[in-house]
Design the sequence.
């Protein structure tokens, strides 16, 4: 039998871990499921895109029924998203293999490109467009000139940002075979598999509804 002491402790823990209470905290938490971009799909509201529209129209043919078109768009959207997830799975497996095969100079250049992209996104109000600087200077020269646009406290903030970014960058991975790459990628592949299964279920439901509407028409 659960003691009153344990019940009180559970109630206290529940109140302490009931999630964010402020508007800002709730806004941040609402994006947790969107880490991979696949959970951002809103049920019943397919994202508009030329590819989705083209595939939906191909499924409907000459039919003009709005309900039929709505189901066709759900089918089309989920089909395209599942294809994108398939490519993402391949990238998760192949990227470490490709990185391990890079030369040290290529790996450093790739890391420097990422740093520049992050800096110019974070401090865009201080800097000219990165594309315009790349027309005049090499990547290394652009990186060397960044501090010229900052002074005082802003320069300190920039240097802290660069240090934190570089501290988070992984070292060049050692070369491994595809079996080992698959094993390392397994956790991320499992997450994508859950999203793909959810989309496939939604697509099947839409296909059944689409067939029923087509027969009724």
Sequence:
């Amino acid at each position: 039998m659960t003691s009153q002491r344990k019940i009180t402790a559970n109630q206290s823990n529940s109140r302490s871990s009931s999630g964010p209470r402020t508007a800002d905290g709730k806004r941040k938490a609402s994006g947790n499921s969107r880490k991979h971009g696949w959970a951002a799909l809103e049920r019943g509201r397919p994202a508009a895109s030329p590819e989705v529209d083209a595939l939906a129209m191909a499924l409907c043919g000459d039919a003009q029924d709005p309900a039929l078109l709505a189901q066709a768009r759900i089918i089309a959207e989920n089909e395209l998203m599942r294809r994108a997830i398939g490519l993402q799975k391949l990238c998760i497996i192949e990227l470490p293999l490709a990185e391990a095969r890079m030369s040290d100079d290529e790996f450093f250049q790739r890391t420097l490109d990422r740093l520049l992209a992050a800096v110019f996104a974070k401090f865009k109000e201080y800097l000219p467009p990165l594309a315009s600087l790349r027309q005049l200077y090499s990547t290394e020269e652009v990186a060397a000139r960044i501090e010229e646009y900052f002074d005082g406290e802003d320069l300190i903030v920039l240097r802290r940002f660069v240090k934190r970014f570089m501290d988070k960058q992984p070292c060049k991975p050692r070369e491994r075979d595809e079996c080992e790459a698959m094993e390392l990628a397994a956790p991320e592949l499992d997450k994508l598999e859950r999203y793909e299964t959810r989309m496939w279920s939604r697509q099947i439901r839409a296909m059944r509804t689409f067939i029923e509407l087509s027969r009724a028409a």
